[in-house]
Automatic annotation (TrEMBL):
Record's protein name: ABC transporter substrate-binding protein
Signal peptide residue numbers: 1-22
Highest taxon listed in the record's lineage: Bacteria
Keywords: Signal
CDD domains assigned to the protein according to its UniProt record, in alphabetical order: PBP1_ABC_sugar_binding-like
Organism: Roseinatronobacter alkalisoli
UniProt keyword annotation of Magnesium present: no
Length: 312
């Protein structure tokens, strides 16, 4: 009976979305204070510029850890009657009730970057993301290739419990355990604050002079990590792998501070997310999961078309 009710509810939402006309698409991300999310904004704007029926708003809290602020932004979007919502949830559980409320209000939702908890199943129409587990394994394989199979590797993570972090860092850790004897120092959580990551990394480098590798798992964390490596004079002494691809991280790769950085298709995440929502609003069917991919960028391929298409 529960399954039948959910099917009826989903069908009703599909009908509502199918007749929706011009209106606002709200894009709400984890924070506006990040080049990664601004690149998502550029992709979303490109999708909006390709049509004339919908307008777009872009918003997010001041920090990824400001989860209550993000919930309020979604509440406000629902209250003003947006046509659809593209959401990068900062917390897999805290955003579930408000996404359910959007569903009940007949507002289609496309989730990007980080998954929602299982309780949200059936309340959104598509999920677009890097396959974070596969990305974590890719970084771990590169760590083993560069650093070998013994020694210690520090993990500089961002916000504990976020869907992307669970897959990215969890699968990195599991891959190292399965394929090497490398031990883990950490993880340490920066709350996606560059200064926090810098201070944490500085302390960890001082306390662990024998580290063979270090992994910064998102943009602000990897930037703080890279700056700490430079300030400590440890550049080139250990394998440093980052995640994401802003100008700071690109410079670290070019200078040899980072061995490589795994770069998500952030522009594609915004563009494909908005396009998927436009299709839903037009009554079309979209895939429930769309993989936006990752490219491991190093000094050898940083100027290649493949890398330049994802760097920002």
């Amino acid at each position: 009976m529960k399954t039948l009710k959910m099917c009826v509810a989903v069908s009703a939402l599909a009908l509502t979305a199918g007749v929706a006309q011009a209106g606002e698409i709200a894009v709400i991300v984890k924070t506006t204070n990040s080049n990664f999310w601004q690149n998502v904004n550029l992709g979303a704007q490109a999708a909006i510029d390709g049509q004339t029926e919908h307008t777009m708003s872009f918003d997010g809290p001041a920090a990824e850890s400001a989860i209550a602020d993000q919930v309020n932004l979604v509440e406000n979007a629902i209250n003003r009657g947006v046509s659809g919502l593209v959401l990068a949830p900062s917390d897999p559980e805290a955003l579930v009730p408000v996404v359910r409320r959007a569903f009940e209000a007949g507002i289609p939702v496309v989730i990007i970057d980080s998954a929602l908890g299982e309780d949200a199943e059936g309340t959104y129409q598509a999920f677009l993301s890097t396959d974070n587990c596969a990305a974590g394994e890719t970084v771990a394989a590169r760590m083993i290739e560069e650093a070998g199979t013994t020694g210690s590797v520090a993990i500089m993570s961002y916000v504990a419990g976020v869907g992307s972090e669970i897959g990215r860092v969890g699968c990195f850790t599991d891959y190292l355990a399965e394929h090497s004897e490398l031990s883990i120092v950490g993880p340490y959580y920066s709350q996606s604050q560059m200064a926090t990551a810098l201070n944490q990394t500085t302390d960890i480098l001082a306390a662990n002079p024998g580290l063979v590798g270090i992994f910064g798992a998102n943009e602000p964390t990897a930037v703080g990590m890279g700056r700490a490596i430079v300030q400590s004079g440890r550049a080139g002494e250990l394998v440093a792998l980052g995640f994401d691809g802003n100008s700071d991280l690109q410079e670290f790769v070019r200078d040899g501070v980072l061995t490589a950085t795994a770069v998500q298709g952030s522009f594609a995440m915004g563009e494909l997310g908005v396009n998927a929502l436009i299709d839903i609003l037009g009554g079309e069917t979209v895939d429930s999961f769309i993989n936006t991919g990752v490219v491991l960028v190093d000094a050898e391929n940083i100027d290649s078309p493949e890398a330049q298409n994802v760097l920002y």
